[in-house]
Design a protein that fits this description.
This protein is α/β, with parallel strands linked by helices. The chain is built from 8 helices and 14 strands. Strands 5-2-1-6-7-8 form a 6-stranded parallel β-sheet, with helices on both faces. A 6-stranded mixed β-sheet has the order 10-9-11-14-13-12. It is globular.
Length: 339
């Protein structure tokens, strides 16, 4: 008997991507269920060559599935994930609801797969924040080789990180500006078309935003609690694909050439770094790709043992749906997920 899998929040951008990636990677599911709120009942969704009809998550019998990929937001996850786990299924949650729970593993499979063993605590595994995921994939091999002391990074995050409404707003504003329509922000605090907004999520008491705080605390939980990280997170008028300019301070010397070769042979990474026109990756090229791309590898002479990287990834894939499916594959490989 094969695995039975449900995608909760299947009509959202990440939920749709989860269905696509399950099919692309030939995940061994005997049956897949698409779930969402009552208003989405009957919506048809693609799963490989199949068409799934969306069911009401509130009336679904979770005892008949082995795995639930949760992409319905923080509040629904806080309500439903413990219930689903109690019914016997493992939950892989894409929201921020469980990330800092000490009994819930926070996992990037290329970085800390051993943390999956902690799933027995609550039956829930947390998917990290999108920017954290791609940064961790790039930092892991460098940290193993030269130990990272400090990271200062600026993120340039696409609007898809804010969901379908945010993508629609960029599209509507861009068209409207060409015909002199008045810009009226709704999903964002300011105009996003032809603009950059240094504000993602809510502000905290120290002046950081919640998005920036997530990168700090998630890095410590996933990679090393001793790493000091400072982030400035901005939303840019790009539909899909997050970029990060990361400046590292290392304990040991590591040249740009050595770092480049180290990253080339590390899992989940692709290095495109030629010092010429088009010799780097931008968000547009990352769309639809599984890899996290690294370019512009340079030594930073302003600090001792400094290194700079440009890190780009499809945030709907590696930053969300792909990482969740890879977690599920890791559970299978470790014998933690069975039909």
């Amino acid at each position: 008997m094969g695995l039975k899998v449900a995608v909760f929040g299947a009509t959202g951008a990440v939920g749709k991507e989860m269905l696509t990636i399950l099919a692309e990677r030939l995940f061994p599911a005997e049956e897949v269920f698409a779930l969402a709120s009552r208003k989405s009942m009957g919506v048809e969704l693609s799963y490989g060559e199949q068409t799934l009809v969306c069911q009401n998550a509130e009336t679904f019998d979770f005892s008949k599935v082995d795995l639930v990929l949760m992409s319905a937001g923080g509040d629904p996850s806080r309500e439903w994930s413990p219930k689903i786990a109690a019914a016997g299924a493992i939950v892989i949650d894409n929201s921020s609801a469980w990330r800092m729970d000490p009994d819930v593993p926070l996992v990037v499979p290329e970085v800390n797969p051993e943390a999956l063993d902690g799933v027995s605590q609550k039956g829930i595994i947390a998917n990290p924040n999108c920017s954290t995921i791609q940064l961790m994939v790039a930092l892991k091999p460098i940290h193993d080789r030269a130990k990272i002391k400090r990271v200062n990074c600026a993120t340039y995050q696409s609007v898809s990180g804010g969901g379908q409404a945010a993508m629609d707003e960029l599209w509507t504003q861009t068209k409207g500006i060409y015909v002199n329509d008045q810009v009226e922000p709704q999903a964002f605090t300011k105009q996003i078309a032809f603009n950059v907004i240094p504000h993602i999520d809510t502000f905290m008491d120290d002046g950081a935003t919640k998005e920036e705080w997530k990168m700090v605390v998630e890095t410590k939980k996933i990679l090393d609690p001793s790493i000091k990280l400072f982030a400035t997170c901005a939303r840019v008028p790009v539909f899909v694909g997050h970029s990060i300019a990361a400046h590292l301070e290392l304990e040991e010397e590591l040249s740009a050439d050595e770092a480049r070769e180290l990253l080339r042979v590390s899992p989940g990474l692709m290095v495109v770094d030629k010092r010429e026109d088009e010799g780097y990756v931008t968000p547009v090229e990352s769309v639809g790709e599984f890899a996290t791309f690294v370019s512009r590898v340079r030594e930073d002479p302003t600090v001792e043992n400094g290194l700079a990287l440009w890190v780009v990834s499809d945030n709907l894939r590696k930053g969300a749906a792909l990482n969740a499916v890879q977690i599920a594959e890791g559970l299978l490989n470790r014998g933690l997920l069975k039909a």
